[in-house]
Amino acid sequence: DPVEDKRALLDFVNNLPHSRSLNWNESSPVCSYWTGVTCSKDGSRVISVRLPGVGFQGPIPPNTLGRLSALQILSLRSNLISGHFPYDFSNLKNLSFLYLQYNNLSGPLPADFSVWNNLTIVNLSNNRFDGSIPRSLSNLTHLAVLNLANNSLYGEIPDFNLPSLQQINLSNNDLTGSVPKSFTRFPNSVFSGNNISFETSASRVPPVPAPSMAPNPKSKNSRELGETALLGIVIAACVLGFVAFAFLIHVCCSRKKGRNEFSDKLQKGEMSPEKVVSRTQDANNRLVFFEGCNYAFDLEDLLRASAEVLGKGTFGMAYKAILEDATAVVVKRLKEVSVGKRDFEQQMEVVGSIKHENVVELRAYYYSKDEKLMVYDYYSQGSVSAMLHGKRGGERISLDWDNRMKIALGAARGMARIHAENGGKFVHGNIKSSNIFLNSRRYGCVSDIGLSTIMSPLAPPISRAAGYRAPEVTDTRKAAQPSDIYSFGVVLLELLTGKSPIHTTGGDEIIHLVRWVHSVVREEWTAEVFDVELMRCPNIEEEMVEMLQIALSCVVRMPDQRPKMPEVVKMIENVRRVDTENRPSSENRSESSTPPPPASDRES
Ligand SMILES: Nc1ncnc2c1ncn2[C@@H]1O[C@H](COP(=O)(O)OP(=O)(O)OP(=O)(O)O)[C@@H](O)[C@H]1O
């Protein structure tokens, strides 16, 4: 533990009243346990503190956070922090991201910004800062985003030369004079709400008309209402058509910049804007985080995050959301949850308690009448399905035999862990290759646990899950552990054949993978079954045939004849302990004329 940093954080939290409790105990490890805190790789220093919306009230106690001299990210936004900008933050020489927006900070901005020469994003908007904009900001050569909007800053805007600056917002202050030459590349709207004269010049972007219903930023009330109210006002204005033009321009601009806010996505979905507003206003419903989760964000953060649609699954849409500190999370928005709040919460608690290196951890969830969300880590390499079959026209990723064995073994171990839950009765209910990801050691890792029990009865048999569904589930619509084994067997067949569970041939004929494999094997053409890509790997035929036998034992018709998950794990381990590497590697087999797989595909 970084003892000094821990002390500084405890001094901070013990001396600043807050309404949400934090799991910061003296006895627990800071780096792996404390909410909102991230340490350096070697665990020697705290490098990030993110505590938005914790309800901190009052001035930041001196000589607390200022002692975290290795800090790179500090987010205390959306609290009720008052007082002056802490003078001892000048010790935070490594600070790159500073988010203090939506607080009640007052007084002048720090005179000397040059002490933080790594600063990249500075957001001090929506406070009560006054005084002038410090000239020293011009020393920040990495500064990409500067937001000082909705304060009481006055005087002229200094003419900085900030080559990295991509976004600036100085709107709604008391600034005077004219827009300096170096900032004429930004739209007039970022300077609006000041006493600034805009000289007309051919190079200027035409001014964006201010929404006629925009709140008076100087009024205390508007600050207290915060973003939710703004969102509501904007939506209301849209509905009334008063600002259609401004809104269109705004949408175009944000599209251009590639930023699609998660809330936008929600609005584009089936949810009405009114519902979004009412939902964000529902103070009783908060994101619930699981113990040991290091993320610190709230629902508003998620709604504000840049989001990308990952896809529509059986249970709703999945989005990739990038939080302000560049953390990527996956948010699943569940449709048609069939259970009430209590059952939902109980199921989430079970799922959230499953901690295993081969199970994708549920980080947080959210339940309200209108909205049910689940938050997971984002797996940048995509799912095994995307790797095997390519996704949305993307290339399929080359997976050699070692990779596939590790995926199979990891997923089997994850499944065995899941089946051990709830006194050995827990059912996954939706095993398929798009729900399997690769962990940091490139072993399979199972996602989407526990959803099938809280959702409305299974989707019609035509759905994408059909190829994975055991025959008895098609009839009874009820998943059980043996049907999970069947689905897992289909995933093994996918890994062996490289084919989707249901696919068409050139002649539009629909092929069911299980039936196809059975028919080929029956004709004793077993070798024809395997993915041609695997044929490049030397000396693996025996292992492939053994894996094929395991897969076929999982997809037998009678549920009680299928092996149990721990047995499947043992059988795969017996084919080859990929993790102990008891098979000579392909490089050592010089007799082979086949070239070894590319280095990136090999086990590290
Ligand atoms: N944690 C994650 N990291 C990266 N991508 C993810 C993550 N979770 C889901 N995805 C991807 O998002 C897309 C949609 O996922 P989702 O689980 O909602 O649907 P699905 O897997 O296609 O079907 P189902 O809902 O039946 O599981 C899929 O392409 C999936 O691989």
UniProtKB/TrEMBL annotation:
Region Disordered: which residues? 202-221, 573-604
Major location category of this protein: membrane
Compositional bias, Pro residues, is annotated for: 594-604
- Describe the location of the Protein kinase domain by residue ranges: 304-575
Transmembrane helix keyword on record: yes
Entry keyword Signal? yes
Which residue ranges run through the membrane?
Answer: 229-253
Q: Where is the composition biased (Basic and acidic residues)?
A: 573-590
Annotated keywords: ATP-binding, Leucine-rich repeat, Membrane, Nucleotide-binding, Repeat, Signal, Transmembrane, Transmembrane helix
Which Gene3D superfamilies is this protein grouped with? Phosphorylase Kinase, domain 1, Ribonuclease Inhibitor, Transferase(Phosphotransferase) domain 1
The record's InterPro entries line, in alphabetical order, gives: At_inactive_RLKs (IPR050994), Kinase-like_dom_sf (IPR011009), Leu-rich_rpt (IPR001611), LRR_dom_sf (IPR032675), LRR_N_plant-typ (IPR013210), Prot_kinase_dom (IPR000719), Protein_kinase_ATP_BS (IPR017441), Ser-Thr/Tyr_kinase_cat_dom (IPR001245)
Coiled-coil positions are none
Subcellular compartments: Membrane
Tell me which residues bind ATP.
K341
**Where does the source fall among the domains of life?**
Eukaryota
Show the Pfam families listed in the entry: LRR_1, LRR_8, LRRNT_2, PK_Tyr_Ser-Thr
- Name the record gives this protein: Protein kinase domain-containing protein
Its organism's taxonomic lineage begins at: Eukaryota, Viridiplantae, Streptophyta, Embryophyta, Tracheophyta
